[in-house]
Amino acid sequence: MKTIVKIIVPLAIIGGAFLLGKFIVGTKEERKSQKPQPVIPQVDLATVPLADHQPPVLSYGTVQSYFETTLTPQVTGQIVEVSPKFRVGEMVKKGDLLARLDDTDYQSALATQQANLELQKRTLAEEEILAKQASEDWLASGRKLSSASEFVLRKPQMATAKANISSAEASIQKATADIERTRITAPYDAVVTERTASLGNLATAQTSLGTLVATERAEVRLPLTADQFARIEIPSKSEIDLTSPNKPGVVWKATLKRTEPTVDPQNQVIYIIAEVKNPYTVGEQTLAVGTFVNASIPATTIDNAYRVPEAALVNDAYLWIVDAENKLVKADAERVYSHNAHAYVRLSSQDIKPPLKVVTRPLSNFREGTTVQAADDTAKK
Protein backbone atom coordinates (compact mmCIF):
# COMPACT_ATOMS: atom_id res chain seq x y z
CA MET A 1 0.00 0.00 0.00
CA LYS A 2 2.78 2.43 0.87
CA THR A 3 4.45 1.63 -2.41
CA ILE A 4 1.32 2.51 -4.35
CA VAL A 5 0.98 5.82 -2.50
CA LYS A 6 4.61 6.70 -3.28
CA ILE A 7 3.93 6.17 -6.96
CA ILE A 8 0.55 7.91 -7.19
CA VAL A 9 1.38 11.10 -5.24
CA PRO A 10 4.25 12.27 -7.53
CA LEU A 11 2.21 11.50 -10.59
CA ALA A 12 -0.70 13.51 -9.22
CA ILE A 13 1.58 16.47 -8.51
CA ILE A 14 3.08 16.38 -12.00
CA GLY A 15 -0.33 16.13 -13.59
CA GLY A 16 -1.68 19.03 -11.57
CA ALA A 17 1.28 21.21 -12.47
CA PHE A 18 0.79 20.36 -16.17
CA LEU A 19 -2.91 21.29 -16.06
CA LEU A 20 -2.17 24.54 -14.19
CA GLY A 21 0.47 25.55 -16.76
CA LYS A 22 -1.83 24.78 -19.63
CA PHE A 23 -4.55 26.87 -18.00
CA ILE A 24 -2.21 29.86 -17.53
CA VAL A 25 -0.96 29.68 -21.10
CA GLY A 26 -4.48 29.44 -22.41
CA THR A 27 -5.67 32.50 -20.54
CA LYS A 28 -2.60 34.76 -21.47
CA GLU A 29 -3.30 37.46 -24.04
CA GLU A 30 -1.35 37.17 -27.27
CA ARG A 31 1.35 39.97 -27.62
CA LYS A 32 0.97 42.10 -30.68
CA SER A 33 4.12 42.56 -32.82
CA GLN A 34 5.49 46.16 -33.05
CA LYS A 35 7.47 47.72 -35.90
CA PRO A 36 10.88 49.19 -34.84
CA GLN A 37 11.16 52.97 -34.89
CA PRO A 38 13.43 54.18 -37.72
CA VAL A 39 16.76 55.70 -36.60
CA ILE A 40 17.38 59.13 -38.23
CA PRO A 41 21.06 60.08 -38.32
CA GLN A 42 21.99 63.43 -36.82
CA VAL A 43 24.46 65.61 -38.71
CA ASP A 44 26.20 68.95 -38.20
CA LEU A 45 25.07 71.46 -40.78
CA ALA A 46 26.32 74.86 -41.92
CA THR A 47 24.19 77.24 -43.97
CA VAL A 48 26.40 78.49 -46.80
CA PRO A 49 25.37 81.35 -49.15
CA LEU A 50 26.63 81.91 -52.66
CA ALA A 51 28.79 85.05 -52.52
CA ASP A 52 31.94 86.84 -53.63
CA HIS A 53 34.97 86.28 -51.44
CA GLN A 54 38.39 87.92 -51.18
CA PRO A 55 40.66 85.72 -49.08
CA PRO A 56 44.30 86.87 -48.94
CA VAL A 57 47.22 84.94 -50.37
CA LEU A 58 49.53 83.67 -47.64
CA SER A 59 53.28 83.21 -47.97
CA TYR A 60 56.43 83.45 -45.89
CA GLY A 61 60.06 84.47 -46.21
CA THR A 62 63.15 85.87 -44.57
CA VAL A 63 64.05 89.54 -44.42
CA GLN A 64 67.04 90.37 -46.61
CA SER A 65 69.13 93.52 -46.85
CA TYR A 66 68.51 95.93 -49.71
CA PHE A 67 72.17 97.05 -49.56
CA GLU A 68 74.87 95.26 -47.57
CA THR A 69 78.44 96.51 -47.80
CA THR A 70 81.69 95.07 -46.54
CA LEU A 71 83.98 98.02 -45.87
CA THR A 72 87.47 97.63 -47.34
CA PRO A 73 89.94 100.50 -47.77
CA GLN A 74 91.17 101.51 -51.21
CA VAL A 75 94.58 102.44 -49.80
CA THR A 76 96.99 100.88 -47.33
CA GLY A 77 97.72 102.41 -43.96
CA GLN A 78 97.68 102.03 -40.22
CA ILE A 79 94.35 102.67 -38.50
CA VAL A 80 94.83 105.76 -36.34
CA GLU A 81 91.18 106.53 -35.49
CA VAL A 82 87.97 104.54 -35.00
CA SER A 83 84.73 106.48 -34.56
CA PRO A 84 82.54 105.77 -31.51
CA LYS A 85 79.69 105.34 -34.00
CA PHE A 86 81.51 102.44 -35.62
CA ARG A 87 80.08 99.82 -33.22
CA VAL A 88 77.81 96.86 -33.87
CA GLY A 89 74.18 97.97 -33.61
CA GLU A 90 74.90 101.68 -34.04
CA MET A 91 73.04 103.68 -36.70
CA VAL A 92 75.17 105.81 -39.00
CA LYS A 93 74.31 108.42 -41.60
CA LYS A 94 75.67 108.73 -45.10
CA GLY A 95 79.08 110.41 -44.97
CA ASP A 96 79.73 109.74 -41.26
CA LEU A 97 83.42 109.08 -40.49
CA LEU A 98 83.88 105.49 -39.31
CA ALA A 99 87.66 105.08 -39.29
CA ARG A 100 90.78 106.94 -40.45
CA LEU A 101 94.10 105.66 -41.75
CA ASP A 102 97.49 107.31 -41.41
CA ASP A 103 97.82 109.64 -44.45
CA THR A 104 101.45 110.75 -44.00
CA ASP A 105 102.71 108.91 -47.09
CA TYR A 106 99.88 110.27 -49.21
CA GLN A 107 100.45 113.85 -48.01
CA SER A 108 104.09 113.44 -49.02
CA ALA A 109 103.07 112.08 -52.41
CA LEU A 110 100.78 115.06 -52.92
CA ALA A 111 103.56 117.53 -52.10
CA THR A 112 105.91 115.74 -54.51
CA GLN A 113 103.41 115.87 -57.34
CA GLN A 114 102.63 119.54 -56.68
CA ALA A 115 106.34 120.31 -56.93
CA ASN A 116 106.57 118.25 -60.11
CA LEU A 117 103.67 120.21 -61.58
CA GLU A 118 105.45 123.49 -60.99
CA LEU A 119 108.58 122.07 -62.60
CA GLN A 120 106.66 120.96 -65.68
CA LYS A 121 104.97 124.35 -65.94
CA ARG A 122 108.42 125.98 -65.92
CA THR A 123 109.63 123.58 -68.57
CA LEU A 124 106.65 124.40 -70.77
CA ALA A 125 107.29 128.14 -70.36
CA GLU A 126 110.92 127.63 -71.43
CA GLU A 127 109.88 125.58 -74.44
CA GLU A 128 107.40 128.26 -75.49
CA ILE A 129 110.18 130.88 -75.42
CA LEU A 130 112.57 128.61 -77.35
CA ALA A 131 109.87 127.82 -79.92
CA LYS A 132 109.19 131.49 -80.46
CA GLN A 133 112.91 132.21 -80.86
CA ALA A 134 113.26 129.36 -83.34
CA SER A 135 110.44 130.71 -85.46
CA GLU A 136 111.95 134.19 -85.54
CA ASP A 137 115.39 132.83 -86.48
CA TRP A 138 113.91 130.77 -89.30
CA LEU A 139 112.05 133.76 -90.72
CA ALA A 140 115.17 135.96 -90.37
CA SER A 141 117.03 133.55 -92.60
CA GLY A 142 114.62 134.39 -95.41
CA ARG A 143 112.82 131.07 -95.37
CA LYS A 144 109.15 130.33 -94.86
CA LEU A 145 107.92 128.64 -91.66
CA SER A 146 106.10 126.03 -93.75
CA SER A 147 109.47 124.72 -94.89
CA ALA A 148 110.74 124.25 -91.33
CA SER A 149 110.43 120.87 -89.60
CA GLU A 150 108.36 120.52 -86.45
CA PHE A 151 111.44 119.54 -84.52
CA VAL A 152 113.20 122.79 -85.54
CA LEU A 153 110.15 124.75 -84.39
CA ARG A 154 110.23 122.70 -81.12
CA LYS A 155 106.64 121.51 -81.44
CA PRO A 156 107.38 117.97 -80.11
CA GLN A 157 109.19 119.46 -77.12
CA MET A 158 106.19 121.67 -76.34
CA ALA A 159 103.79 118.73 -76.69
CA THR A 160 105.94 116.70 -74.28
CA ALA A 161 105.97 119.56 -71.76
CA LYS A 162 102.15 119.88 -71.94
CA ALA A 163 101.74 116.10 -71.53
CA ASN A 164 104.00 116.19 -68.48
CA ILE A 165 101.82 118.91 -66.99
CA SER A 166 98.67 116.81 -67.57
CA SER A 167 100.39 113.80 -65.99
CA ALA A 168 101.42 115.85 -62.95
CA GLU A 169 97.89 117.20 -62.57
CA ALA A 170 96.49 113.65 -62.75
CA SER A 171 99.01 112.53 -60.14
CA ILE A 172 97.92 115.38 -57.88
CA GLN A 173 94.29 114.31 -58.30
CA LYS A 174 95.21 110.73 -57.36
CA ALA A 175 97.26 111.84 -54.38
CA THR A 176 94.37 114.03 -53.22
CA ALA A 177 91.94 111.14 -53.69
CA ASP A 178 94.24 108.78 -51.76
CA ILE A 179 94.28 111.23 -48.85
CA GLU A 180 90.48 111.31 -48.92
CA ARG A 181 90.40 107.51 -49.10
CA THR A 182 92.20 107.29 -45.78
CA ARG A 183 88.89 108.47 -44.30
CA ILE A 184 86.50 105.48 -44.21
CA THR A 185 82.94 106.86 -44.34
CA ALA A 186 79.43 105.37 -44.50
CA PRO A 187 78.22 105.14 -48.13
CA TYR A 188 74.54 105.39 -47.06
CA ASP A 189 72.31 105.45 -43.98
CA ALA A 190 73.02 102.11 -42.34
CA VAL A 191 73.30 100.02 -39.22
CA VAL A 192 76.63 98.46 -38.29
CA THR A 193 76.33 94.66 -38.20
CA GLU A 194 80.02 93.82 -37.89
CA ARG A 195 83.24 95.67 -37.05
CA THR A 196 86.77 94.30 -37.22
CA ALA A 197 88.72 97.57 -37.38
CA SER A 198 90.88 98.37 -34.35
CA LEU A 199 93.43 101.06 -33.57
CA GLY A 200 96.95 100.18 -34.70
CA ASN A 201 95.90 97.54 -37.24
CA LEU A 202 97.37 97.75 -40.72
CA ALA A 203 94.55 98.03 -43.25
CA THR A 204 94.99 96.94 -46.86
CA ALA A 205 92.71 96.57 -49.86
CA GLN A 206 92.08 92.96 -48.78
CA THR A 207 91.24 93.88 -45.17
CA SER A 208 87.59 93.92 -44.07
CA LEU A 209 86.92 96.70 -41.58
CA GLY A 210 83.25 95.89 -40.96
CA THR A 211 79.82 95.40 -42.51
CA LEU A 212 76.94 97.84 -42.98
CA VAL A 213 73.28 97.13 -43.79
CA ALA A 214 71.06 99.81 -45.30
CA THR A 215 68.30 101.12 -43.03
CA GLU A 216 66.27 102.89 -45.70
CA ARG A 217 64.63 99.69 -46.90
CA ALA A 218 64.76 95.90 -46.79
CA GLU A 219 63.38 93.10 -48.96
CA VAL A 220 61.49 89.87 -48.40
CA ARG A 221 61.54 87.05 -50.95
CA LEU A 222 58.13 85.31 -50.98
CA PRO A 223 57.39 81.99 -52.75
CA LEU A 224 53.99 81.57 -54.48
CA THR A 225 52.34 78.72 -56.33
CA ALA A 226 50.96 79.31 -59.81
CA ASP A 227 47.40 79.54 -58.43
CA GLN A 228 48.45 82.07 -55.80
CA PHE A 229 50.42 84.12 -58.30
CA ALA A 230 47.37 84.33 -60.59
CA ARG A 231 45.40 86.08 -57.81
CA ILE A 232 47.76 88.98 -57.13
CA GLU A 233 48.93 92.08 -58.99
CA ILE A 234 52.57 93.16 -59.35
CA PRO A 235 53.46 95.87 -58.76
CA SER A 236 50.62 96.17 -56.26
CA LYS A 237 48.96 99.37 -55.12
CA SER A 238 47.86 97.68 -51.89
CA GLU A 239 50.19 97.12 -48.97
CA ILE A 240 50.76 93.64 -47.59
CA ASP A 241 51.03 92.70 -43.91
CA LEU A 242 54.12 91.06 -42.45
CA THR A 243 54.12 89.38 -39.03
CA SER A 244 56.74 87.45 -37.12
CA PRO A 245 56.41 84.76 -34.41
CA ASN A 246 59.23 86.58 -32.59
CA LYS A 247 57.09 89.71 -32.09
CA PRO A 248 53.41 88.75 -31.67
CA GLY A 249 51.00 91.58 -32.38
CA VAL A 250 53.45 93.66 -34.42
CA VAL A 251 52.56 94.21 -38.09
CA TRP A 252 54.89 95.67 -40.71
CA LYS A 253 53.66 97.09 -43.99
CA ALA A 254 55.36 96.15 -47.26
CA THR A 255 54.85 96.71 -50.97
CA LEU A 256 55.14 94.18 -53.77
CA LYS A 257 57.75 95.47 -56.21
CA ARG A 258 58.76 92.83 -58.71
CA THR A 259 58.92 89.17 -59.69
CA GLU A 260 62.02 87.07 -60.14
CA PRO A 261 62.40 86.13 -63.82
CA THR A 262 62.87 82.40 -63.18
CA VAL A 263 60.82 79.58 -61.64
CA ASP A 264 62.32 77.35 -58.96
CA PRO A 265 62.98 74.02 -60.73
CA GLN A 266 62.68 72.04 -57.50
CA ASN A 267 59.14 72.96 -56.47
CA GLN A 268 57.95 75.15 -59.37
CA VAL A 269 57.20 78.16 -57.18
CA ILE A 270 57.48 81.76 -58.31
CA TYR A 271 59.30 84.24 -56.08
CA ILE A 272 58.07 87.79 -55.65
CA ILE A 273 59.94 90.59 -53.90
CA ALA A 274 58.29 92.73 -51.23
CA GLU A 275 59.95 95.91 -50.01
CA VAL A 276 59.80 97.26 -46.45
CA LYS A 277 60.63 100.91 -45.79
CA ASN A 278 62.61 101.92 -42.71
CA PRO A 279 62.86 98.40 -41.23
CA TYR A 280 65.17 99.54 -38.44
CA THR A 281 62.72 101.87 -36.73
CA VAL A 282 63.68 102.08 -33.07
CA GLY A 283 61.51 100.03 -30.70
CA GLU A 284 59.33 96.99 -31.19
CA GLN A 285 58.85 97.89 -34.86
CA THR A 286 62.46 96.98 -35.71
CA LEU A 287 62.50 94.35 -38.47
CA ALA A 288 66.04 93.04 -38.50
CA VAL A 289 67.63 91.32 -41.45
CA GLY A 290 67.27 87.54 -41.08
CA THR A 291 63.85 87.68 -39.38
CA PHE A 292 61.36 85.03 -40.51
CA VAL A 293 58.02 86.61 -41.41
CA ASN A 294 54.58 85.51 -42.58
CA ALA A 295 52.99 87.56 -45.36
CA SER A 296 49.28 88.25 -45.97
CA ILE A 297 48.80 89.57 -49.50
CA PRO A 298 45.53 91.18 -50.71
CA ALA A 299 44.22 89.22 -53.68
CA THR A 300 41.59 89.42 -56.39
CA THR A 301 37.95 88.49 -55.67
CA ILE A 302 36.64 84.93 -56.09
CA ASP A 303 33.21 85.40 -57.69
CA ASN A 304 30.14 83.23 -57.02
CA ALA A 305 31.64 80.64 -54.70
CA TYR A 306 30.71 78.81 -51.51
CA ARG A 307 32.94 79.02 -48.46
CA VAL A 308 32.76 75.64 -46.67
CA PRO A 309 34.81 74.00 -43.90
CA GLU A 310 37.73 72.03 -45.30
CA ALA A 311 36.36 68.79 -43.79
CA ALA A 312 33.09 69.16 -45.70
CA LEU A 313 34.78 68.68 -49.08
CA VAL A 314 35.05 64.91 -49.51
CA ASN A 315 37.96 63.59 -51.58
CA ASP A 316 38.34 67.10 -52.98
CA ALA A 317 35.42 66.25 -55.28
CA TYR A 318 31.96 66.60 -53.70
CA LEU A 319 29.83 67.88 -50.81
CA TRP A 320 26.98 66.30 -48.89
CA ILE A 321 24.10 68.75 -48.63
CA VAL A 322 20.61 68.47 -47.18
CA ASP A 323 17.61 69.38 -49.34
CA ALA A 324 14.24 70.84 -48.29
CA GLU A 325 12.99 67.34 -47.39
CA ASN A 326 15.95 66.71 -45.08
CA LYS A 327 17.46 64.15 -47.45
CA LEU A 328 21.12 63.83 -48.32
CA VAL A 329 22.19 65.01 -51.75
CA LYS A 330 25.65 64.38 -53.19
CA ALA A 331 26.81 67.53 -55.03
CA ASP A 332 29.92 67.53 -57.21
CA ALA A 333 32.17 70.49 -56.30
CA GLU A 334 35.38 72.04 -57.61
CA ARG A 335 37.89 73.60 -55.25
CA VAL A 336 38.82 77.12 -56.31
CA TYR A 337 40.98 78.16 -53.38
CA SER A 338 41.78 77.29 -49.76
CA HIS A 339 42.40 79.57 -46.81
CA ASN A 340 42.25 79.37 -43.03
CA ALA A 341 40.77 75.80 -42.84
CA HIS A 342 38.08 76.64 -45.41
CA ALA A 343 37.66 75.72 -49.05
CA TYR A 344 36.11 78.00 -51.66
CA VAL A 345 34.19 75.82 -54.10
CA ARG A 346 31.81 75.99 -57.05
CA LEU A 347 29.16 73.34 -57.75
CA SER A 348 29.04 71.50 -61.06
CA SER A 349 25.22 71.41 -61.09
CA GLN A 350 23.22 74.58 -61.66
CA ASP A 351 20.04 72.94 -60.36
CA ILE A 352 21.06 73.30 -56.71
CA LYS A 353 20.03 76.70 -55.48
CA PRO A 354 21.66 78.63 -52.63
CA PRO A 355 21.90 78.85 -49.73
CA LEU A 356 23.18 75.35 -49.11
CA LYS A 357 22.84 73.26 -45.96
CA VAL A 358 26.23 71.58 -46.02
CA VAL A 359 27.17 68.63 -43.82
CA THR A 360 30.34 69.78 -42.12
CA ARG A 361 31.44 66.32 -40.94
CA PRO A 362 30.27 63.76 -43.49
CA LEU A 363 30.52 60.02 -42.75
CA SER A 364 31.83 57.35 -45.07
CA ASN A 365 28.54 55.38 -44.93
CA PHE A 366 26.35 58.23 -46.23
CA ARG A 367 23.93 57.28 -48.99
CA GLU A 368 22.12 59.68 -51.26
CA GLY A 369 18.46 60.06 -50.32
CA THR A 370 18.97 59.17 -46.65
CA THR A 371 16.83 61.25 -44.29
CA VAL A 372 18.88 63.12 -41.70
CA GLN A 373 18.32 65.58 -38.89
CA ALA A 374 20.40 68.53 -37.80
CA ALA A 375 22.22 67.84 -34.57
CA ASP A 376 20.67 70.89 -32.91
CA ASP A 377 17.58 70.91 -35.15
CA THR A 378 18.81 74.15 -36.76
CA ALA A 379 21.36 74.79 -39.42
CA LYS A 380 24.56 76.28 -38.03
CA LYS A 381 25.91 79.36 -39.59
UniProtKB/TrEMBL annotation:
<keyword id="KW-0472">Membrane</keyword>
<dbReference type="InterPro" id="IPR058625">
    <property type="entry name" value="MdtA-like_BSH"/>
</dbReference>
<feature type="domain" description="Multidrug resistance protein MdtA-like barrel-sandwich hybrid">
    <location>
        <begin position="70"/>
        <end position="213"/>
    </location>
</feature>
<feature type="transmembrane region" description="Helical">
    <location>
        <begin position="7"/>
        <end position="25"/>
    </location>
</feature>
<feature type="coiled-coil region">
    <location>
        <begin position="117"/>
        <end position="178"/>
    </location>
</feature>
<keyword id="KW-0175">Coiled coil</keyword>
<dbReference type="GO" id="GO:1990281">
    <property type="term" value="C:efflux pump complex"/>
</dbReference>
<keyword id="KW-0812">Transmembrane</keyword>
<dbReference type="InterPro" id="IPR006143">
    <property type="entry name" value="RND_pump_MFP"/>
</dbReference>
<comment type="similarity">
    <text>Belongs to the membrane fusion protein (MFP) (TC 8.A.1) family.</text>
</comment>
<keyword id="KW-1133">Transmembrane helix</keyword>
<dbReference type="Pfam" id="PF25917">
    <property type="entry name" value="BSH_RND"/>
</dbReference>
<dbReference type="GO" id="GO:0015562">
    <property type="term" value="F:efflux transmembrane transporter activity"/>
</dbReference>
<protein>
    <submittedName>
        <fullName>Membrane protein</fullName>
    </submittedName>
</protein>
